[in-house]
Amino acid sequence: MNPDLALVFWSLALLEAKHFLCDFVLQTRYQWSNKGIYGHPGGILHAGLHAFGSVPALLILGPKAPWLAAIVGAEFLVHYHIDWLKERINKRFALSRDKGLFWAVFGADQFLHQMTYLAILAVLASALAL
């Protein structure tokens, strides 16, 4: 395997592990119950944990500080708004775990987060000419 491709692979693996930890292990009721309230500290905390949790995975690729800061900031904004939108849709359509549409919206939320990680790695790999 190309050494640069291996670095991208391991970076993605760490992003996936971070996502699991931040969304399913570390996320508290305070965070998930307030993500639908725009600007609420619970949603900001959740998105912030995701953004800063990505730093070790991104450092593997060796980006300069401005790139790292821009990507962490962008991930924060994207993650925050994906979660906020999911919660707004759930509320608007009164979705609960016993409705199929709830799981489709949840799956779309998770899919968008995964696509965010791929976009981050594509941008970094291109910028760093990996």
Could you characterize the architecture of this molecule?
By secondary structure, this protein is mainly α. The chain has 6 helices and no strands. Helix 1 (3-25) packs antiparallel against helix 6 and helix 5 packs antiparallel against helix 6. The chain is elongated and about 50 Å long.
- Largest sheet features: none
Residue stretches low in confidence (pLDDT < 50, at least 5 long) are: none
Number of H- or I-type helical stretches: 6
Instruction: Provide the helix percentage.
Output: over 70%
By secondary-structure content and strand pairing, the structural class works out as mainly alpha
Number of strands: 0
Tell me the distance between the termini. 13 Å
Helix-strand sequence: HHHHHH
Radius of gyration, in angstroms, nearest whole number: 16 Å
Mean pLDDT: 95
Question: Would you summarize the structure shown here?
Answer:
With 130 residues, this protein is mainly alpha-helical. It contains six helices and no strands.
Fold topology:
Elements: H1 3-25, H2 29-32, H3 41-53, H4 55-59, H5 65-92, H6 100-127
Helix pairs in contact: 1-3, 1-6, 3-5, 5-6
Task: Fill in the keyword field for this structure.
130 residues; mainly alpha; elongated
